[in-house]
Amino acid sequence: MKVEFELNGKEQKFDVKPGEVLLDLLRDNGCKSVKRGCETGDCGACMVLVNGRAMTSCTLFAAQVDGKEIRTVEGMEDNLTDQLKQFMLEAGAVQCGFCTPGVLISAYSLLTHNKNPSEEEIKAALDGNLCRCTGYVKQIDAIKETADSIGGSSDGKK
Ligand code: FES
Ligand code: FES
């Protein structure tokens, strides 16, 4: 069947096989930032933005995103993304890097909907992202720094 959606800012049509998951379609079309981890919705390595919200692409059929707007790290080129990348690097939040695209997606989704998240809200946003290297502290620090930089205070006070 044909499925049409916006991928990284470009409206595109895809021939989708029955049962094809979004993770496979994206990786087959050059979006290698979308990592194949557990394939059961538990690790967050395959996260993408679906209409601006972080979702696991291994648990979505490609046909389910017909008409939606999908963004992967390849298509994130704005100031918020730049700041997140910079603070993740500075905080030492990138070690093996396998979880990093998924963490970027979750952090981006959080900060576009909440510019001043509390630590609890940051932890909740990263709840679906498994990282076996960092212990999460550095990632949380990087998100706090980014929130400060984009104008929130990152102390959770509204
Ligand atoms: S590969 Fe999708 S959540 Fe793990
Ligand atoms: S940096 Fe290695 S899994 Fe997160």
Describe the structure.
It is a single chain. With 158 residues, the protein is α+β, with helices and mostly antiparallel strands. It folds into 2 domains: 2-74, Beta-grasp domain (Ubiquitin-like (UB roll), Roll); 79-150, [2Fe-2S]-binding domain (DNA polymerase, domain 1, Orthogonal Bundle), CATH 1.10.150.120. It has helices spanning 22-28, 79-91, 100-113, 119-125, 137-150, and strands spanning 2-7, 10-15, 47-50, 53-56, 69-71. Strands 2-1-5-3-4 form a 5-stranded mixed sheet, with helices on one face. The longest helix has 14 residues, at 100-113. The chain is globular. One FE2/S2 (inorganic) cluster binds next to loops.
Summarize the model shown.
This protein has 2 domains: 73 residues, Ubiquitin-like (UB roll) (Roll), CATH 3.10.20.30; 72 residues, Orthogonal Bundle (DNA polymerase, domain 1), CATH 1.10.150.120. The chain is 35% helix and 15% strand.
- β-sheet strand percentage: 5-15%
CATH architecture heading of the largest domain: Roll
Look up the CATH topology of the largest domain.
Answer: Ubiquitin-like (UB roll)
Name the bound molecules: FE2/S2 (inorganic) cluster
Main beta sheet: 5 strands, mixed
Dominant shape? globular
Total of DSSP H or I helical runs spanning 4+ residues: 5
CATH class of the largest domain: Alpha Beta
Task: Estimate the helix proportion, in percent.
Answer: 25-40%
Q: Helices and strands: which structural class?
A: alpha+beta
**How large is the radius of gyration?**
15 Å
**Tally of DSSP β-strands:** 5
CATH-defined superfamily of the largest domain:
Beta-grasp domain
Q: What spatial order of strands do you see in the largest sheet?
A: 2-1-5-3-4
Number of spatially distinct domains: 2
Helices and strands, in order, run as EEHEEEHHHH
